[in-house]
């Protein structure tokens, strides 16, 4: 038996798609466009860009909203408890049938079952630090194109992303919301998606790509379709928070070369709870995997933007012309991975900056793994990283990458001439300059490094722990509690570890079979000689002897 507490669940979309089209907005506003390169060259953007044609509709975000709201008010929500009121919390019990549906979640690696039950326009806690609400952000009149690329995303998560933008963006700031479909084949994302979108807002548009382009080329496509002065990229499973937009736009208005990132809050993959992220900076290890670093010193103000050596990749604002000027993305990068580090280095080395804006918050569903395949393209994070390393890790620093990932030496980067010419045209700084001025912490050693964690998050990701001195990994094949922790060959088929975060920055390390890494009790004492043995023990998730700090 599982009981979840939700923000009023309702089957908002028990209205048929047809009914929505009938009563919905006029015109083919949301167009599935898919133009070939050839067609693209022949046409001028403005001619076929429906957002431009219907500019007046674009202005009318608010009315569109009301329209959608009225419609849903007529739909009876399930199990509404009058005593609690419409916006109150409501308990829901999962039956056996529900449990079967629950297993569907494996397809998406997060709780879609729950996502489908939660209102699209649920409230999220305003987790901005005190002082943000009082700040004013004058002089930001530029309009935004929000670009969301998706491949087989759960429809409810995608729609909730859009709904949150509509609900929590000041009217008049959003030019358009571009959904770039990266060759999805789920039925929910087909025709019916258009009707459901139209019920939320008229400024959303879906661009269909029949061929899988990967998220990097899909973003380039989105940027080229966009007409807003500022681009904001989001993953397809986000919820923007109160007042998210102005602080981002303000940073860009101050300095057009700045790239502004919101704080990426956590939406729990299983409970879909929204909670605040700690204040951290982005960086990477020599394997060129993104990582979170702690801030080197106390930040002077909790509300002021601060610089970050790298960004996670998915959520950021950039002036559209600036994005083009500095070379969009590397079109030869496939599917997933590496583009975030490439972009971060390029922005910094070529005269710009990256900032994290604490007053701007956007939640993201952190999954333990990616649910989709990569069309047999292998480890694209690795092949993409090879391209970026050959382009940006100049001055001999590429050997650090090769040392961390020896297999990378064997991979040919392919034609880099275009990327290198961008570097030359912009007169970019060297990588040594970047290390000296932006990321001196990059060269610091840590006792344990994360191996092969891919793009997973620091909260629920599966990973291996590698011991630097022995170059072996923490053994995860524990049979029973009190088994002593040992290190073993990193290639062995052992399970990945999971981090579970009970609070603050301490986490439990889950070994599988409900066993956690424990440094207390009888077993701990068994080491003798004043040192502590680390053993497997039944997980209690209460910190204490099972709390670990990831550094
Ligand atoms: O082939 C694909 N085509 C797509 O359109 C594969 C993916 N996608 C879409 C997908 O539907 C999603 O909207 O691309 C987006 C990112 O993919 P995710 O959500 O599966 O990956 P992620 O959240 O682990 O990805 C992080 O790293 C990526 C590296 O390429 C991108 O930069 C993502 O945008 C980035 N996400 C974030 O920064 C959110 C915070 C995560 C952290 C840390
Ligand atoms: Mn994501």
Name of the CATH superfamily of the largest domain: Spore Coat Polysaccharide Biosynthesis Protein SpsA, Chain A
- How many β-strand stretches? 23
Q: Please, what is the average pLDDT?
A: 76
Helix content: 25-40%
Please indicate the percent range of residues in DSSP E strands (runs of 2 or more). 15-25%
Question: What characterizes the major β-sheet?
Answer: 9 strands, antiparallel
Give the tally of structural domains.
2
Polypeptide structure, described:
The structure is a single chain. With 551 residues, the protein is of the alpha+beta class. It has 2 domains: 3-75 and 105-366, Spore Coat Polysaccharide Biosynthesis Protein SpsA, Chain A, CATH 3.90.550; 448-549, no CATH class. Helix content is 28%, strand content 22%. It contains 19 helices and 23 strands. The strands form 5 sheets. Strands 15, 16, 17, 18, 19, 20, 21, 22 and 23 form a 9-stranded antiparallel β-sheet that branches. A 5-stranded mixed β-sheet has the order 5-4-3-6-13, with helices on both faces. Strands 7, 8, 9, 12 and 14 form a 5-stranded mixed β-sheet that branches. The longest helix has 14 residues, at 155-168. The radius of gyration is 24 Å and the shape is globular. The model is unreliable at 1-95 and 445-460 (pLDDT under 50). Bound molecules: ligand LR7 and manganese (II) ion (MN). The site of ligand LR7 has 25 residues, from strand 3, helix 11 and helix 14.
